[in-house]
Specification:
The protein has about 260 residues and is mainly alpha-helical. Helix content is about 80%, strand content about 0%. It is built from 9 helices and no strands.
Length: about 260
């Protein structure tokens, strides 16, 4: 659904590559697992490179185009980290668990949020949506830099500052979807999906903020195993699927009925 909302529908070929990625995780830690995931990585890289090339060749330097490129780039980065996890590659000496979670993070906090902002910006180029567009281009990279600096032995201050800033960005995206829910001119089913997705994001953002402050306000329950279960589920299945479904329903409602 995310690719369709970005006007990048892939059909059966995408389903084939994503099935390969799923099979690779089932095969892990077999040596053949990364090869099964390779088509998924190559597809994401190709779409990202193609989008970037089109921006440069046709000089489409609008913010909306950059947000779409960022969404595809986050997806490709997540696919690369997933490949590294399956292949046993540990960039910068990261623990394998962190490598795997980084793949998930770029898929959800990167691709899903960026696609949601793309949809917001597409339907209304308001000042707030433009701010969210620029935040999309900087938020995830800053969080990634903060986590990397902590891994390299630097102070965790930059990590929790960037993570809290990203949480504020997520809150703003959440609020924009609540505003859409309150707009009765929107399709009813889409509005309900946006509200349910926003509710899940509230819980996901709260957990992210508490986890970012773990160095200063440690809570035993807020650890990686619990974050994998609850934070990941609220964001991916809750916010991601529900909000994408809401935008898909809104898009379908705008299509003219064929005679």
């Amino acid at each position: 659904m995310g690719l369709e909302l970005l006007n990048q529908p892939q059909g059966i070929f995408y389903h084939f590559t994503s099935a390969g990625l799923g099979a690779a995780y089932l095969m892990y830690p077999a040596a053949t697992a990364p090869f099964t995931a390779l088509p998924y990585l190559l597809l994401s890289l190709w779409l990202t490179i193609r989008e970037g090339t089109q921006i440069l060749v046709f000089r489409k330097f609008q913010l909306l185009q950059w947000v779409r490129l960022a969404a595809l780039g986050f997806w490709a980065t997540g696919a690369l980290w997933a490949f590294c996890f399956l292949a046993g590659i540990r960039p910068l000496g990261f623990d394998p668990v962190i490598v795997g979670l980084t793949a998930a993070h770029f898929h959800v906090a990167g691709f899903v949020l960026a696609t949601a902002v793309y949809c917001l910006l597409s339907q209304e180029a308001s000042r707030m949506n433009k701010i969210l567009g620029w935040a999309t281009l900087t938020g995830m990279p800053l969080v990634a830099v903060g986590i990397t600096l902590t891994q390299l032995g630097f102070s965790p201050v930059f990590e929790w500052v960037s993570a809290l800033g990203f949480s504020a960005f997520a809150w703003a995206v959440l609020w924009q979807h609540i505003r859409l829910f309150l707009d009765k001119s929107r399709p009813a089913r889409a509005r309900l999906h946006w509200l349910a997705g926003a509710s899940c994001l509230v819980l996901g953002v709260m957990l992210a903020a508490v986890y970012a402050l773990r160095f200063h306000f440690p809570i035993p329950w807020v650890n990686i195993p619990n974050m994998k279960i609850w934070h990941g589920t609220f964001n991916a299945v809750g916010f991601g699927w529900l909000v994408f479904q809401g935008w898909r329903l809104a898009k379908l409602a705008k299509k003219p009925v064929q005679p």
